[in-house]
């Protein structure tokens, strides 16, 4: 008897909660979007497209091992057809976020989305050329790297760069939303946050990577190396949407190294070529070419009573890191 009562009570409580939340849905909050659910872009599909693009970009490294035999051309044809079909559909769905969408007929949106999809896939050889240089930069720049396989299969920096280079081309093709979903997926996996709008040259290397932030309007030249915790950001975002399309992030010229924890901020800030930015530097003004920036007179103080004082420092000893 008690089990039946508990079951009826559970059903009643569930119905009351459903009614409560359905009533809340009627308040027109920005987080509500129910009517056109099936016309929304799918984050899951976009992430799946990213993983298929990884198989296209790095053939053999990320191929589907469920196949007992592997024919490169047939496998590539299958991947391309799948990516073309699914990416085209997702670009159609994000068309509503483009300016002037309301005045464009569905047929034109479908056609333009298809043209963008084809153009993007035509750019893959160029993307692979850049990634080859990034792979070389990783092996040359990291003595812990044993071979290319290790870098491709294990290094979060190369994964984040790969996704960014793919997303950047869609960004240049003025595809809304999808590039950001791609790079934020890479961000969630690697801790490396590179906006798809950032322009990055050849031979780019991220060492360790966790905590790196590269803003939308950042421009990075060739042969640049950055370490964990580096921020290439804006001086201020208090202007909010008024700052959209305004240059907010720095320019890093060729052959620059930026060590861990450094922050380089501002749209007018230029780090000149062949410069080295030391750890924890905070830079808001341009640096001439060939400059070495470092922090001096940082102090570390150790205090506390020590037993067995022989060969130990006294309690009031100060240690300086310069």
Blueprint (SSEs and pairs):
Layout (H helix, E strand, L loop, with lengths): L1 H24 L17 H15 L14 H23 L11 H17 L1 H18 L6 H7 L1 H17 L5 H13 L2 E2 L4 E2 L4 E3 L5 E2 L4 E2 L4 E3 L3 E3 L17 E2 L4 E2 L4 E3 L4 E2 L4 E2 L4 E2 L8 E2 L4 E3 L18 E3 L1
Give the biggest beta sheet: 5 strands, parallel
> Mean pLDDT, as a whole number?
88
Percent range of helical residues: 40-55%
Q: Strand-and-helix sequence, N→C? A: HHHHHHHHEEEEEEEEEEEEEEEE
Coarse morphology: globular
- The parts where pLDDT drops under 50 for at least 5 residues are 309-322
Instruction: Find the count of extended strands (DSSP E, 2+ residues).
Output: 16
Fraction in beta strands: 5-15%
Distance between the termini: 78 Å
If helices are DSSP runs of H or I spanning 4 or more residues, what is the number of helices? 8
Rounded Rg: 26 Å
Biggest sheet: strand arrangement: 1-4-7-10-13
Secondary structure class reads alpha/beta
What does this structure look like?
- The chain has 8 helices and 16 strands.
- By secondary structure, it is of the alpha/beta class.
- It has a 5-stranded parallel beta sheet with strand order 1-4-7-10-13. Strands 3-6-9-12-14 form a 5-stranded parallel beta sheet. The protein has a 4-stranded parallel beta sheet with strand order 2-5-8-11, with no helix packed on it.
- The model is unreliable at about 310-320 (pLDDT under 50).
- It has helices spanning about 1-25, 45-55, 70-95, 105-120, 125-140, 150-155, 155-170, 180-190; strands spanning about 195, 200, 205, 215, 220, 225, 230-235, 250, 255-260, 265, 270, 275, 280-285, 290-295, 300, 320.
């Amino acid at each position: 008897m008690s089990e039946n009562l508990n079951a009826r009570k559970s059903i009643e409580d569930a119905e009351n909660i459903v009614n409560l939340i359905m009533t809340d849905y009627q308040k027109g909050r920005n987080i509500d979007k129910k009517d056109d659910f099936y016309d929304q872009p799918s984050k899951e599909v976009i992430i799946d497209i990213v993983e298929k693009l990884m198989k296209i970009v790095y053939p053999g490294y990320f191929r589907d091992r469920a196949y007992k035999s592997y024919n490169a051309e047939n496998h590539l044809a299958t991947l391309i057809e799948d990516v073309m079909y699914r990416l085209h559909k997702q670009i159609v769905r994000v068309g509503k976020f483009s300016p002037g969408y309301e005045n464009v007929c569905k047929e034109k949106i479908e056609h333009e989305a298809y043209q963008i999809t084809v153009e993007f896939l035509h750019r893959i050889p160029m993307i692979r050329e850049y990634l080859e240089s990034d792979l070389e930069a990783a092996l040359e720049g990291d003595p812990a790297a044993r071979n290319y396989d290790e870098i491709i299969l294990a290094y979060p920096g190369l994964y984040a760069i790969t996704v960014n280079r793919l997303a950047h081309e869609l960004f240049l093709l003025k595809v809304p939303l999808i590039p950001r979903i791609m790079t934020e997926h890479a961000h969630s996996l690697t801790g490396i946050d590179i906006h798809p709008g950032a322009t990055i040259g050849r031979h780019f290397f991220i060492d360790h990577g966790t905590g790196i932030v590269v803003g939308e309007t950042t421009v990075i030249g060739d042969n640049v190396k950055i370490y964990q915790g580096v921020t290439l950001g804006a001086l201020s975002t208090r202007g909010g949407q008024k700052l959209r399309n305004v240059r907010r992030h720095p320019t890093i010229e060729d052959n620059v190294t930026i060590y861990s924890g450094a922050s380089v901020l501002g749209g007018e800030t230029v780090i000149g070529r062949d410069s080295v930015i030391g750890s924890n530097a905070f830079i808001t003004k341009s640096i001439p070419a060939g400059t070495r920036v470092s922090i001096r007179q940082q102090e570390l103080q150790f205090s506390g009573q020590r037993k067995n004082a022989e060969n130990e420092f006294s309690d009031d000893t100060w240690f300086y890191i310069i």
